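To illustrate the input format used throughout this study, we show a single complete record. The first block contains the structure-token representation of the backbone; no residue identities are included at this stage. The design step must infer an amino acid for every position from geometry alone.
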């Protein structure tokens, strides 16, 4: 029988985005025909899907490193790169996905349940897409983003209808072997069963699954023996069957004490109180076994649970037990319709796509947190000055530069964004000359203050109009030519102002 693997650590790497391309269109008699670099394809995602044909996590055990395909790079003539193929990993029903630090990311129950676990990186834009009215022929393109890299722990909680509960060597594996086609290991030493065995049982027209799990000893709920392994698998069973050993020679153990000990562990684990119980008194074929069973039967029945005297060795009493199990499972199914497969699971990580946050570091530097700054840094080719300037423009536009200045950054101090470290040089990358003024002042601000205000410009325009009207009326004055020249200059200045505003409003990089 194939090894049953119910816990694996997986290292997942979604595909990287393809790089955008920087290319210039060339044609005869048209040497510089404009930018035509295409964008890179997106990297492939990694998704878990519950598949009915998969029963263990064994495949992942042998292949714990999984990588989806990268996006292809863009090319000239506006050719976009192909997207990387996504990977669909088939997992068994009842797989729980944990993050490396133990947080439950998804609980995959029901055929078809899916979970997008690692997202591929976005492809970079080519220089054709980066061109705008100001930057007509960008000599750079965006890099593709790296795909998400995550480590997860997959854990399989068996989804069986009936769980067999009992002390080690009570005969649980022997029972599942005789009522189903499962061939578990059976031996006369405790903890023979280390991982659960699942068997399919047919009773009349009903079919159900039975899980034989490792033996339980007192203290299991706190981790003794293989207790937690055992309890994890019992958690999802609809019906529990106590398998009680009628032939144990251990001093201090008797059937009722065994049941009480098992119940105490189940109660400590919690959440199992509502499961219907059956009691199978096993090994009645041994001398005294049958007598013992008859003696304790009444006491067990007093707990309100149906009792079956069986022998896994001689197969006595198995039919009644099988039919009783089937009846309990059918009753449970009728009361609890099968769970809807979880198709869309909201990713637990909140994606902040709006802003950024500045954190002061111990060494006098600053770290900028935020989805956009992180992504923009990842998209930047640091071998290309134009691309670096573009990054600085983008960061300045959402206010990172101002916020750093406010937080107390001084030129030259380290600023960390998306795992990279920069020396902060305000506005230099953006190509704007920064001339430090007096403390609290800024020469650029003073220049703009010297400009005529809107009301002054309006007054000048009115004055001009009056003079033109005067001219039209034929009242020539000696000051008119000078006034006309002043008017032209004013108009020119305001037109330049409008240009600035237009650029800022239509710049697609604000995205
Ligand atoms: N005489 C007799 N022996 C049995 C019967 N059922 C099981 N045994 C024996 O009891 C021993 C333990 O059986 P297992 O089926 O391995 O017990 P288990 O409950 O699965 O034990 P663990 O896996 O260790 O928890 C084996 O030697 C079996 O042959 C029975 O009905 N009659
Ligand atoms: Mg066993």
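Output of the design step:
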């Amino acid at each position: 029988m194939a090894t049953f693997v119910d816990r694996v650590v997986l290292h997942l790497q979604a595909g990287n985005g393809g790089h955008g391309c920087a290319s210039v269109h060339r044609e005869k008699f048209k040497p510089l025909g404009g930018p035509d670099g295409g964008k890179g394809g997106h990297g492939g995602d990694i998704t878990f899907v519950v598949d009915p044909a998969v029963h263990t996590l064994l495949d992942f055990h042998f292949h714990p490193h999984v990588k989806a395909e990268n996006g292809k790079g863009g090319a000239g003539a506006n050719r976009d790169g192909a997207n990387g193929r996504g990977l669909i990993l088939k997992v068994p029903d009842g797989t729980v996905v944990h993050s490396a630090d133990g947080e439950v990311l998804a609980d995959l129950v029901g055929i078809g349940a899916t979970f997008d676990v690692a997202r591929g990186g976005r492809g970079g834009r080519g220089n054709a897409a980066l061109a705008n009215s100001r930057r007509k022929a960008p000599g750079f393109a965006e890099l593709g983003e790296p795909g998400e890299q995550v480590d997860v722990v997959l854990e399989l909680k068996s989804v069986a209808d009936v769980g067999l509960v009992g002390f080690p060597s009570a005969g649980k594996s022997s029972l599942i072997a005789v009522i189903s086609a499962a061939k578990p290991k059976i031996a006369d030493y405790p903890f023979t069963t280390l991982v659960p065995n699942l068997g399919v049982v047919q009773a009349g027209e009903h079919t159900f699954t039975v899980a034989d799990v490792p033996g339980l000893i007192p203290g299991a709920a706190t981790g003794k023996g293989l207790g937690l392994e055992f309890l994890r698998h019992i958690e999802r069973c609809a019906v529990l069957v106590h398998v009680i050993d009628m032939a144990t020679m251990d001093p201090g153990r008797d059937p009722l004490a065994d049941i009480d000990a098992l119940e105490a562990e189940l109660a400590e684990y919690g959440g199992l109180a509502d499961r219907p119980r059956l009691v199978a008194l096993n090994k009645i074929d041994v001398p005294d076994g049958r007598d013992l069973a008859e003696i304790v039967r009444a006491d067990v029945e007093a707990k309100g649970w149906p009792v079956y005297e069986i022998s896994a060795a001689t197969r006595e009493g198995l039919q009644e037990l099988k039919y009783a199990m089937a009846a309990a499972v059918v009753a449970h199914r009728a009361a609890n319709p099968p769970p809807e497969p979880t198709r869309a699971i909201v990713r637990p990580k909140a994606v902040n796509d709006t802003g950024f946050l500045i954190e002061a570091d111990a060494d006098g530097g600053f770290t900028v947190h935020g989805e956009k700054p992180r992504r923009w840094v990842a998209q930047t080719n640091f071998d290309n000055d134009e691309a670096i300037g573009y990054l600085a423009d983008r960061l300045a536009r959402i206010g990172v530069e101002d916020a750093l200045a406010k937080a107390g950054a001084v030129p030259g101090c380290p600023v960390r964004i998306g795992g990279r470290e920069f020396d902060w040089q305000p506005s230099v990358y953006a190509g704007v000359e920064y001339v430090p003024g007096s403390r609290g002042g800024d020469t650029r601000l003073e220049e703009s203050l010297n400009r005529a205000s809107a009301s002054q410009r309006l007054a000048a325009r009115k004055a001009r109009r009056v003079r033109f009207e005067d001219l039209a009326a034929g009242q020539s004055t000696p000051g008119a030519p000078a006034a006309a020249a002043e008017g032209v200059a004013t108009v020119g200045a305001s037109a330049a102002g409008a240009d600035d505003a237009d650029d800022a409003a239509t710049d697609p990089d604000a995205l």
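Structural context for interpreting the output: Residues 172-173, 192-193, 212 surround magnesium ion (ligand 2) (CB under 6 Å). The mean pLDDT is 78.
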